[in-house]
Write a structure and sequence with these properties.
heterodimer, A: 114 residues, mainly beta, 7-stranded mixed β-sheet, 4-stranded antiparallel β-sheet, 0% helix, globular, B: 111 residues, 6-stranded mixed β-sheet, 5-stranded antiparallel β-sheet
């Protein structure tokens, strides 16, 4: 089954403790991206990657890192999480990132930073 | 000012009626526009995309784009209770890869 898999589904952590949210897709997609969703603000793009080894900032990259060492994986790294990074995170992918392509979303990761 | 603006709602629509959702965007160079539906606790799913001025119809959904007014809308005809969800407007600004979402409009279809 074609899918984008995020792990974990829920995560509670404390301020300053490094964490990684994994994202993997099995569709051989070139394009992957990360979003956070907060009430009243909608989805905001954190980072995106047009292909392996190429990443670029979205609208809210501060406090986040990503890496794209292989096509299928695009982990989101929070080196020193803070409470304002408490949010619902979505990973998504599409074939090439072209404007007319459907974006496939993962199921989301609910992160709470205490 | 947010780049993509939507009324948050909730928009209450009787079953069988037409739901009309609006979205405005600030980047005049934007070329591609999308409507996503998101059920509570779920991930967004694409309903429609539109690139050209005018209307685009897909089943009960019609997207309308007016680039001069920087306005895109979604009409849902014959609304059903299963249409109750949050509808997200999304825009690709002038660079590929970036995607900007509005905050979403909650639609509630009442039987």
């Amino acid at each position: 089954e074609a899918q984008v898999t995020q792990n974990p589904r829920y995560l509670i952590t404390v301020t300053g403790k490094k964490l990684t949210v994994t994202c993997s897709q099995n569709m051989n997609h070139e394009y992957m991206s990360w979003y956070r969703q907060d009430p009243g603000l909608g989805l905001r793009q954190i980072y995106y990657s047009m292909n392996v080894e190429v990443t670029d900032k979205g609208d809210v990259p501060e406090g986040y890192k990503v890496s794209r060492k292989e096509k299928r994986n695009f982990p989101l790294i929070l080196e020193s999480p803070s409470p304002n990074q408490t949010s619902l995170y979505f990973c998504a992918s599409s074939s090439t990132g072209a404007p007319n392509e459907k974006l496939f979303f993962g199921s989301g990761t609910q992160l709470s930073v205490l | 000012q947010k780049e993509v603006e939507q009324n948050s709602g909730p928009l209450s629509v009787p079953e069988g009626a037409i739901a009309s959702l609006n979205c405005t965007y600030s980047d005049r160079g934007s070329q591609s526009f999308f409507w996503y539906r998101q059920y509570s606790g779920k991930s967004p799913e694409l309903i429609m995309f539109i690139y050209s001025n005018g209307d685009k119809e897909d089943g009960r959904f019609t997207a309308q784009l007016n680039k001069a007014s920087q306005y895109v809308s979604l009409l849902i005809r014959d609304s059903q209770p299963s249409d109750s969800a949050t509808y997200l407007c999304a825009v690709i600004p002038d660079s590929w890869g970036k995607l900007q979402f509005g905050a979403g409009t909650q639609v509630v279809v009442t039987p």
